[in-house]
Predict the 3D structure of the following.
Amino acid sequence: MPTARYKRVVLKLSGEAFAGGNGFGIDPDVVHRIAGEIKEARDLGVQLGIVVGGGNFMRARSTSPHDIDRTTADYMGMLASVLNCLALQAALESLEVDTRVQSAIEIREVAEPYIRRRAIRHLEKTRVVIFAAGTGNPYFTTDTAAALRAAEIDAEALLKASTVDGVYDSDPKINHDAKKLEHLTYLDALSARLKVMDATAISLTMDTKMPVIVFDLRTAGNIVRVLVGEQIGSTIS
């Protein structure tokens, strides 16, 4: 079995990934595949905290002339994140992976409240901890929540699982000549306004010197490849 490069990480999963080809909602087959890869990562001895977005149900901004106000939309997104986290927990536990969901919004019937020391203790007991509901505050994305939780639990890296295979100098879905950037600094990402993460999240990782590895979740086995140190995706440091 390969040796993991990291002892403790936070894995950021987009809500959109949970929808699979449907574009909306939760595709159980996709969630089960992701859970299988997380189990492989856990079996390497890596302590895993996971943050899941809610974009498969709710986006903060839309083009509708009848937009919901930003604060309400953000709270709806947090609740959408809880749905995804519970789905991931169910998939992991079906694979006999001991899991805890901790929510930044108090929903005691389905999740523990987020308590930093308790989260760290779960990780030390080899449980996967899934952080739900973002930071619990509007105007902060789940990318920022991932950067915050990574800092709080003393993670060694933040792994951002994306729908592209790294960071590009422009949108590769629009510009076929977009150049992939395998290594870049936090200031590079901020000054070029690359849409890998929002500015608040990048600034926080810069302040805490937290390396961010961006990779394609759709390629099977990529989570483990990143954890054992293979050079895939892009690294912001």
The two ends are 28 Å apart (CA to CA). The helical segments are 15-19, 28-43, 70-94, 116-124, 142-152, 186-191, 199-208, 222-227. The longest strand covers residues 8-13. The chain has a mean pLDDT of 93.
